[in-house]
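Standup notes, structure subgroup. Blocker cleared on the FE2/S2 (inorganic) cluster input:
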Amino acid sequence: MHTTTKPSSAIPVRSPDALPVELTINGERRALDVEPWTSLLDLLREHLHLTGTKKGCDHGQCGACTVLVNGTRINACLALAVSHDGDEITTIEGLAEDGALHPVQQAFVDHDAFQCGYCTPGQICSAVGLLAEGHAQCRDDVREQMSGNLCRCGAYVNIANAVESVRLARRIDTREEDEAHAAHAPHEAHAPHDSHDPHAAPQAQGPHAAQDPHAPHEAQNAQGDAP
Ligand code: FES
Ligand code: FES
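Run returned:
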């Protein structure tokens, strides 16, 4: 009887080209063997089956693959997995905590900020990164700094509404924390009467005084070559 031996698909074959990489993915340390040409996106989707991160263009032009690397948003399709040895990767699957949606995820639900949902994981990861950057000062900033994330369904109005709602809520929380802190601060901490010193430098006035109006928008497109 003639028999043939088929390679078992159940036994992973280690590529002789694979390199050892350690990544922390959604809080879990993973030791992996990765071929040097594997993108971070393919590692997540094809090897680790974290398919929440989407592949749209695979060329850095749509933002569907946005993930957070050490808290910074990047296009995973443009990143080689081996170049992120030791890094912390957060995908859409890693944003919820203890069964509760991340505030940005909840805002997308509340504001109906998606239609087909294909761009949504990238939009949400990008928004989380944007809010952490802290450069957005208004809704237009949100729109501009999210411009690397395309939505073919055109849900941009509600996406901006969702992100802006979280930004405003955090700003109110921060202000209330500052006020509570100031109310409990000991009187000794109050500034001495420096203001009577005619040589004292003039103090900045107004809520926007500390902002540099000429600050470059270097973080406005934190996704490298994304449009
Ligand atoms: S799939 Fe990465 S930017 Fe489009
Ligand atoms: S919701 Fe369909 S592509 Fe954005």
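Discussed briefly. The pocket of FE2/S2 (inorganic) cluster (ligand 1) is lined by residues 55-58, 60-65, 75, 77, 226 (CB under 6 Å).
Next: hand off to the docking folks.
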